[in-house]
Amino acid sequence: MKLEENFVRYGNIDISPFLNILYKLTEKDWDRYTFRQDEHPYHAATKTIPLVYDKEFGVERGEESSFYSLFEEGIKAVEDKLEAEIIRFVIVNLPAGAKIEKHYDKAKDSFHIHKRLHLPLITDPNVKFSVGDETIWMKPGELIEINNNGQLHGVENNSNIDRIHCIIDWHDRTKS
């Protein structure tokens, strides 16, 4: 898969099923999984709620975490909107004032097969996402594919609120 643009918009989706559960999560829930931050130093400032994940970034669907059932309605809505099979699905918190340094992703085999999508849940216009030499703000509920395959990318949260995005790896089930 070769994406020519840095960002591709797939429209909007109702994020209320995610927000309804998200606000019930505790600090302990956010601190429970640290593998993403431990394995990838550029993600050290973030916190992760994994829903479907595999640490090896393979090409098959990851394992469902204990949080999966809480967010299943929202995940299914994304799958239906995209006519997709979800391979990985995590919710990531980037605290106010923090940033993810520009970096290259290491899961290149997976990104040749799967697409990476962001679904902003809580954000602010002062949160800037860069891929290559292009920088945008992703609005809440907007499904946006990013071209992170072999490109530098990063995020700066220059706001006073935590930025919370779903990060989704998927492939089109109509082309399987």
In sequence order, what are the helices and strands, one letter per element? EHHHEEHEEHEEEEEE
Distance between the termini: 13 Å
Mean of all residue-level pLDDT scores: 89
Estimated structural class: alpha+beta
Low-confidence stretches: none
Task: Describe this entry's structure for a reader.
The protein has helices spanning 16-22, 27-31, 35-39, 68-82, 108-113; strands spanning 7-12, 47-53, 63-64, 84-94, 99-103, 115-122, 127-131, 134-136, 142-146, 153-157, 163-172. With 176 residues, the protein is an alpha+beta fold. The strands form two sheets. A seven-stranded antiparallel sheet has the order 1-9-6-11-4-2-3. A four-stranded antiparallel sheet has the order 5-10-7-8, with no helix packed on it. A hairpin with a 2-residue loop joins strand 7 and strand 8. Helix 1 (16-22) runs antiparallel to helix 4 (68-82).
Sum this structure up briefly.
Helix content is 22%, strand content 38%. With 176 residues, the protein is α+β, with helices and mostly antiparallel strands. Helix 1 (16-22) packs antiparallel against helix 4 (68-82).
Chart the SSEs and their pairings.
Layout: E1 7-12, H1 16-22, H2 27-31, H3 35-39, E2 47-53, E3 63-64, H4 68-82, E4 84-94, E5 99-103, H5 108-113, E6 115-122, E7 127-131, E8 134-136, E9 142-146, E10 153-157, E11 163-172
Antiparallel strand pairs: 1-9, 2-3, 2-4, 4-11, 5-10, 6-9, 6-11, 7-8, 7-10
Helix pairs in contact: 1-4
